[in-house]
Amino acid sequence: MKLFEYAGISLLFLLFVNSAFSVNKPMVFSTWEGFEVDKCASIWVIKKFIDKNAVIKFISKGKKIDKGIPFDTPDAKLRRYHNMSTFETIIKAYKLNDPKLLYIAKIIHDIEINVWNQKIMPETDHVKNAIQTIITSSKGNDYIIRESMMLFDALYNKVNNYIP
Questions:
Q1: CA 135, CA 146: separation in Å to the nearest integer?
Q2: What angle is formed at CA 29 by the lines to CA 24 and CA 34, rounded to 5 degrees?
Q3: What pTM value is reported for the model?
Q4: What sections of 55-113 are H helices per DSSP?
Q5: What distances in angstroms separate CA 2 from CA 5, 6, 7, 28, 61, one per listed residue?
Q6: Angle separating helix axes 37-45 and 124-136, nearest 10 degrees
């Protein structure tokens, strides 16, 4: 009986030590190279609301993604559908119900899904043009991500003015 007690205590000790000293590794999200509004918004929501230390890996377009959580590619679960942007898919998958995020989701939907109809959200053109300017004046992926993060942070902070 003593042997089992010592084994149990030893196991508990090892589990405690392992959990006490383990470092939470950042989540890795992978996508194809290239940017557009939906991808920039998706990176922002990942880094702001899912894992602030998330690592975004870019894979050559068309290559199979075999590391991390794929997003914004045709085979990914977190992707654009006929009625939902990648941003909206991520919000739904991670059960993010913040009213300000849902408002921004309408803007991204307006840009990415509502392409042929008249735009519904007053910020649509501004957000689309601002992100396109960031992308075309690009100094690389880090620049686009940093500038997009600032743009969506500012939009998120202003949304209070628009929610009834």
A1: 11
A2: 150
A3: 0.83
A4: 86-93, 99-112
A5: 5, 6, 8, 45, 60
A6: 90
